[in-house]
Amino acid sequence: MAWSMSLSLLAFSLRLTSACPQLHKRQGVNSTVPEENRFWAYEASYDWGRLNPEWELCQTGTQQSPIPLRLDQGLSRFHTLSFDYPNTSTGDVHNWGYGPATTFLGENGASVTELPSARFDENNVDETVYLASWHIHAPADHTVQGDRSKAELHLVHADAQGKERAVLAIRIDPGNSDSRFFRQLPPFIGFNSTGESRPNTEMNMNLALDEINRFSDFWSYKGSLTSPPCTEGLRWFVARNIMFVSDEQMQAILKVSTFSARAEQEVWRHDINSD
Ligand SMILES: *[C@@H]1O[C@H](CO)[C@@H](O)[C@H](O)[C@H]1NC(C)=O
Ligand SMILES: *[C@@H]1O[C@H](CO)[C@@H](O)[C@H](O)[C@H]1NC(C)=O
Ligand SMILES: *[C@@H]1O[C@H](CO)[C@@H](O)[C@H](O)[C@H]1NC(C)=O
Ligand SMILES: [Zn+2]
Questions:
Q1: I want to staple 155 with a disulfide (CB 3.0 to 4.6 A). Which of 123, 168, 201, 256 is the partner?
Q2: Which amino acids bring their CB within 6 angstroms of ligand 3?
Q3: CATH code at 187?
Q4: Residue 54 C-alpha to ligand 1 middle, in angstroms?
C-alpha cells in the first residue's frame, strides 16, 4: 500500500498500528505469486529489497533501521525531546499480528492533532508530532552493546498531516516488580492475531514515559520503517533506560508475540546523536 496514503485512512481501513508493519498480517514469502504481490517475513528480512521493486530501499537505503547502538556513541546532546501527554488516552487494544498494540488515531473520531503530542528539534527546527499508536516487538529491534532485550515498545508519532515521522523506542526486560504501565492494560490473553480487540480502552501513556525517566537519556538517529517498504525520513529515539516488568508481565507479552525483529542494518548516514 502506498506510503502517501494518510495514516487516518489506513487506521480506519486496516487498523494500521505502527511505523513498522505496512502490511498488517503475518505473511510469508511466496515466490509463486506475482512479484509485486509477494509478501515479506521477518525471518527473511535480508532479502526484502529483492521481493518487490518498491521495496528497493530495504536493500539500498542509507538510513535503514534498526541499527546496533553502543555506549561509546554517547547519548543525544543536540535534540530536545519533550512530551505533552494527557493522563488519559483512549485507544483500541489489539494484536498487530506480532504482539500487543494500541491505536489511538481514529478511536472515537480522534484526529491527528488531538492526540498526545511530543516535540523535538531537527536542524534547529521545532517539530510537533502526535502519538498515533504503539506496538511491541519481541525480541527487541535495537541492541545496546550487543545485548538484545526481550521486547521493545514503539511509540509511533505522526506529523500533523498524519504521516509517520518519529518512533520512540523503549526496551523491555523482566525486573523485580510490576510495570504500572502494563498493569493498567487489559490482560493480553486471547489477544492473538485473529482480530480480537478492546476498543475504547483508557490508559495513561505517561506511565510508560515515567518508567524510563521520560527519555532523560536517549540515542537519536535518522532511520526508516523496519518493514517493507523501508521508507526513510523517520527520526528514531531509543531510551537508554530499560522498562522493567514482572516475570508474569513479560511472559504475558511473549505469549501473544511472534518473532518480529528485523536484522540489524549497517550504520551509514544515520547521523547518530547529531542532526
Ligand atoms: C502461493 O500463492 C499461490 C497463488 O496465490 C497459492 O495457490 C499457493 O497456495 C501459495 N503457497 C503457499 C505456500 O502459501
Ligand atoms: C498527570 O498526573 C500527575 C500525577 O500523577 C500530575 O502530576 C500531572 O500534572 C498530570 N498531568 C496532566 C496533564 O494532567
Ligand atoms: C485466538 O483468540 C481467539 C479468541 O479469543 C480464540 O478463540 C482462539 O483459540 C485463539 N487462537 C490461538 C491460536 O490462540
Ligand atoms: Zn515497530
A1: 168
A2: 190, 192, 194, 196
A3: 3.10.200.10
A4: 21
Q: Which domain holds residue 136?
A: 2-255
Ligand 2 atom at minimal distance to the Cα of residue 84: 13
Tell me, using a 6 A CB cutoff, whether residue 88 lines ligand 2. no
CA distance 154 to 98: 13
- Residue 17 CA: distances (Å) to CA of 36, 121, 135, 242: 23, 25, 7, 22
Instruction: Report whether pLDDT(178) > 80.
Output: yes
Could you identify the atom of ligand 3 that is nearest to the CA of residue 192? 1
Q: Is the CB of 274 under 6 A from ligand 2?
A: no
Q: Name the DSSP letter for residue 36.
A: G
Residue of the CA atom closest to atom 13 of ligand 2: 86
Q: Beta 89-95 vs 197-203: how paired, if at all?
A: antiparallel
Judged by DSSP in three states, 134 sits in: strand
**What are 244's three cell numbers?**
522493567
| pLDDT at residue number 192 | 57
Residue 191 covered by a domain? yes
Structure confidence at residue 196 (pLDDT): 76
Confidence at 13, pLDDT banded by 50, 70, 90:
very low
pLDDT digits (tens, 9 = 90+) for 22-76: 333 334 444 444 444 557 888 888 889 888 888 999 999 999 999 999 999 888 8
Q: Is 54 helix (H, G, I), strand (E, B) or coil?
A: helix
Asked, for residue 266, whether it belongs to a domain, the answer is no
